[in-house]
Amino acid sequence: RYFHFCKLPGRVMGIRLLRFTSVVIIVLLLVAGALTALLPNIKDDKLPNLRREPKPQSQSALDSFTLIMQTYNRTDLLLKLLNHYQAIPNLHKVIVVWNNIGEKTPEEMWNSLGPHPVPVVFKVQSVNRMRNRLQNFPELETKAVLMMDDDTLVSAHDLAFAFSVWQQFPEHIVGFVPRKHISTPSGVYSYGSFELQNPGFGNGDQYSMVLIGAAFFHSGYLEDFQRQPEAVYALIDETQNCDDIAMNFLVAKRTGKPSGVFVKPVDIRNLEKDTNSGYSGMWHRAEHLLQRSYCVNKLVSIYDGMPLKYSNIMISQFGFPNYANHKNKM
Amino acid sequence: RYFHFCKLPGRVMGIRLLRFTSVVIIVLLLVAGALTALLPNIKDDKLPNLRREPKPQSQSALDSFTLIMQTYNRTDLLLKLLNHYQAIPNLHKVIVVWNNIGEKTPEEMWNSLGPHPVPVVFKVQSVNRMRNRLQNFPELETKAVLMMDDDTLVSAHDLAFAFSVWQQFPEHIVGFVPRKHISTPSGVYSYGSFELQNPGFGNGDQYSMVLIGAAFFHSGYLEDFQRQPEAVYALIDETQNCDDIAMNFLVAKRTGKPSGVFVKPVDIRNLEKDTNSGYSGMWHRAEHLLQRSYCVNKLVSIYDGMPLKYSNIMISQFGFPNYANHKNKM
User: What are the coiled-coil residue ranges (chains A, B) (predicted)?
Assistant: First the structure.
């Protein structure tokens, strides 16, 4: 007799079982498929970043900035500030310019206390120079730089707002500390703040510089700084001061406009008194302000003219912190 | 004998006299020339404007602005305000848009109380329309327009500063009254001020319009306004409202940026309560705000999209009125 599967009880049972099993398997696969289709949506709600952006950097280099912080003899403040600044919105990376020559960086300790929101790079320097922070660091990937002194705390709200302002004024130094120069009939310039006379262009005061120790500026200016006359480097090295004044000259000369845009900070603090190192900043030296006036005049001679321009624009954030901070009597 | 002039005593005397006279004349001319060269310098110090600019207008059309003020049923306020505004720095001319149909303008009285610092033109209208003030007046010579409501007093200091800000942002409406629209899940927009929820882009509030009843803008936008779709005119005429919202739509669409830049006024007052006419402004009508929300939605349909963009930039004057108004705790 020929082998017909229908007639074979054992095999018939086997086939039915096979069919049944196949159906069960297909049904299970469909159910599994359905579940898989549902599952990513739940995952999306919970962990969007992990799914979408590459793991180490969650910020596109176009919409974020690099914090460059130079440090000397205030590692306790540095670490306190790093805890704060590492979590600022739109931060891409931190570059710490390590001016503590011969001393180990806190990199090991930093790593042992990870993970951290963004990469932090410790750039060990060979000489303790003020202008070390103005190098064109290869680690710098973003268009924007946020430069902070290692004793200055600016709130995240202020930084987020100032960054958005910088994005609207990318060729300017957008920051929190305005200063000015004034002319005198002798032609000699003097440097100062609001305690100096107003420059006399209409009502009120004017500023002609925004200090880079708490400011956003375009990373291209670091490139430009590498091409400054030797005399500029010599001046900064001689005074261990004035790198910020030099940057304002550079920007003003380049743009033909006021170098800075002043954003009025809501919460900016100097943590100097909180350091255990006993080291107080350069600006406490007796000659500090006189040096800065000296630098202004030297730079005018190097630039063969005064490129700094005045501005009286003061920017604040509409409706923050007080949602009616623009209300008027009308 | 031949006629030789050397031999004729009378003629010789005549020639010597002629030579002498010529020398005297030449010397006098040289002295006069020297004096003329000296004279302008002295004149310069004392009366620069009269020497350089044509007499009736002492403001160049490039560095000055035209005030356009529409008026209806509040001539007492108009005249009070004109006395104030006629003396604002950098004002070129005033154009009064006379919406009091059939009523004589106060031109005679105005002239009898002259001279005035600038020319004032009374433009008699044939129909009382809100959008009359948005005509492209032939008398308009300046790039900048200052538009003011006929019940609003802004200090000269505020106006001088805001004009300088407009010169830095000439494609924007630079003014003192910010407003916003908000979206709702239904897609229907609503109009309001800070009492409405924040639009939700980061911290704080945002504005998407600056009202033209107290603002500087480029006179080119009046030209552009003449080319708006009929539906826009119909909307403004139907509501006797919303010409300012329409202008913000126009500017935002044109620039692709936020239409306005808000300058926080130090001293802005509504003089409405001071009028003897008993007439109170349109904004007291019960339906005023609802109309404005209605206008926003109508304009979105006319524009086939929402061109308005948000901004949170609030500009104040550095060091004025308080010379240390930017001081911080650092």
Answer: none
Does residue B115 have a cis bond before it (omega within 30 degrees)?
yes
Which three-class secondary structure state does DSSP give residue A217?
A: strand
Residues of A annotated as catalytic are: 244
Query: Cβ separation of A203 and B164 shorter than 8 Å?
Result: no
A interface residues, B as partner, C-beta within 8 Å: 152, 157, 160-161, 164-165, 168, 176-178, 194, 198, 202-207, 262, 264-265, 268-270, 311-321, 323-330
Within chain B, strands assigned E span 65-71, 91-98, 120-124, 144-148, 152-154, 173-175, 178-182, 190-192, 209-210, 214-218, 260-263, 268-270, 313-317
Please state, in angstroms and as integers, the Cα–Cα distance from residue A142 to each residue in A60, A145, A204, following that order.
8, 7, 37
Contact A207, A260 (CB under 8 A): yes
CATH 1.10.3370.10, applies to A65-315:
no
Q: Could you tell me which residues come within 8 angstroms of residue B150 by beta carbon, excluding any fewer than 6 positions away?
A: B69, B70, B71, B72, B74, B77, B78, B81
DSSP single-letter state for residue B207: B
Q: What is the band of B71 on the pLDDT scale with cuts at 50, 70, 90?
A: very high
Give Cβ neighbours of residue B50 (< 8 Å, ≥ 6 apart).
none
Q: Mark the ranges of chain A whose per-residue pLDDT is less than 50.
A: 1-2, 5, 40-57
Alpha-carbon gap: B25 to the closest alpha carbon of chain A (Å): 43
B interface test, pick of A313, A322, A323, A329 with most B CB neighbours within 10 Å: A313
- Chain B residues with CB inside 8 Å of A327's CB? 194
The distance of A188 to chain B (nearest Cα, Å) reads 24
Confirm if A123 and A97 have CB atoms less than 8 A apart: yes
- What the block records as the tokens of B95 is 């154009």
pLDDT digits (tens, 9 = 90+) for A216-244: 999 999 999 999 999 999 999 999 999 99
**Where are chain A's structural domains?**
65-315
Closest Cα in chain B, distance from residue A142 (Å): 22
For B313, the closest of A157, A165, A311 (CB atoms) is A165
**CA A150 to CA A100: how far, in whole Å?**
13
Q: Give the bridge partners for B191, in sequence order.
A: B181
Predicted local confidence at residue B234, as pLDDT: 98
Rounded distance between C-alpha atoms, residue A144 and residue A64, angstroms:
7
> How long is chain A?
330
Contact list in B for residue A311 (CB cut-off 8 A) is 318
Q: Report the residue of chain A nearest B315, measured CA to CA.
A: A315
ipTM of this predicted complex? 0.80
| Gyration radius of chain B over CA positions | 30
Q: Round the CA-based radius of gyration of chain A to a whole number and report it.
A: 30
Task: Identify from A158, A165, A330 which residue to disrupt to test chain B contact, counting B C-beta atoms within 10 A and taking the largest count.
Answer: A330
Residue A215 CB contacts under 8 Å (≥ 6 apart), including other chains: A146, A147, A162, A173, A174, A175, A176, A177, A260
